[in-house]
Amino acid sequence: MKRDLTIIVPPLPFIIRIVLCVLTFQLLGSTADAWESWHNQVIKLRYVTAIDSQSQDYIWFGVSKILPQKEISAIRQEIERLSARRNIRYDVTGEFVSPPPLPSIQKYTGVYRPTVPGGVSIGHVQPSGEVDVTAGTLGAWVAKDGLVGILSNNHILANSNRGSVGDPIVQPGAYDICWPPPDNGNGNDNGCLFKKILRKKKVKPHLEVDCLDYQIGTLLSWININFEGGNNLVDCAFAVVTDPSFVPTGAPDDPYILGLSHGLTHIRRPIIDERVYKVGRTTEYTKSTIPYIDATVKVSYKYGQTAIFVRQVISAGAMGAGGDSGSIIFAASDGAGVAHLFAGSDEYIAANWLYYTRDFLEFDFLQ
User: Does residue 251 belong to any structural domain of this protein?
Assistant: First the structure.
């Protein structure tokens, strides 16, 4: 009898452990689902631009403009109802957008040859040379499936899901070297603004050149952005280099990323309140901190589209501006890549976890 008990009893704890593990994973999954569910309800409220309930010991939300206290109170009450928490703070962030580039007559907007470092201006154009993406930032050189290429945003390399495999990627972006006259069929008058700046600075505009003369890559892959109300984690894409000589060697006079002595060599998760820096086309080298790393953000894109992004990094707006999209955000403590800038508002920038970007695009570091 005792021997029978010895045979029967040991498996029971093992079975119980399995059941407990399953229940734990289900509970964690349910908690995450519940968190995203009420975040999604809040982010769809009028005037709300962002919300984060995980990063700090309080709930933070952003609104698109200064609102009457009555409107703020109504949003607070809805958050209290959904979260059962009362420690709530808010900021006037302005609207989050994937913005067109700001005018910039800086070195990061120039033509880089024979090698092209990260941090400089790039963009997508049609095979015909027609311009559809004005300019963004070459985030980093990486490898995918044995091919070396460019890491940047979907809206920079793939025209917000509208690109096709094989489309040309040019350096600098069209805005900075071959932006067409203002009447270009999409209602954008940045060309006119840019020409005024060029005239003021007595710089000769290059508006008659063929953008295809500046091609450095071809679009290979991207993660589609969901504009139908579903959640997104990343805005990212990869383009294959057309000539290996464009890829920097990493020597001090040939940096992988302009102004930095390193490229993208390792990735980790972002840490709340850590100091970070980035290099981008418009604001060049900037540094800040990241107070929020689990934000849900509503982002406006061109063509009148809006997308919701979850688990996003939020940093001070001085970190970037229009044209910096695609920049890699590095941790100051160890140089690790932690985020991928893709949107901004008047006061803040939003960035994907670089950890997720790598998982979705399945890229490797250059050896």
Answer: yes
The total number of structural domains in the chain stands at 2
Q: Which domain holds residue 81?
A: 2-94
Structure token digits, residue 8: 């029967």
- Chain segment 85-122, per-residue pLDDT in tens: 999 999 999 999 997 777 665 789 999 999 999 999 99
Order of strands across the sheet with 140-144?
Answer: 136-137, 121-124, 168-170, 215-222, 237-241, 147-152, 140-144
Q: Nearest Cα to 110, choosing from 173, 181, 169?
A: 173
The DSSP code for 233 is -
Angle at 229 between CA 228 and CA 231, to 5 degrees: 115
Single-letter amino acid code for the residue at 332? A
Residues 325, 293: Cα–Cα separation, whole Å: 18
The phi and psi torsions of 361 (rounded to 5 degrees) equal -85, -20
- Which of 31, 63, 94 is where one domain is finished? 94
What is the pTM (predicted TM-score) of this model?
0.85
